[in-house]
Write a structure and sequence with these properties.
This protein is mainly alpha-helical and about 80 residues long. It contains 3 helices and no strands.
Amino acid sequence: MTRQDQRIFVHELTASIAASVVKAIEEEKIPAEWDGRELRELIYDLAKRSRGKTRGDGHSKRWRDYNNWYLITPSI
């Protein structure tokens, strides 16, 4: 994946999640009393759901490599 492909992927994924949440707000499917806490959880859950199930999840070399990178890289 090129750097440009990475940027496009991130923009499309986050825009899709944002659009889903905004649509749910507009359709009054989200409680009016929710604030940033619940909305962050919803966005987090939708992001987790978007990744789907992968074979060997949590045990593959790619997952271990990613997890190691995440643990040693300063927050982004």
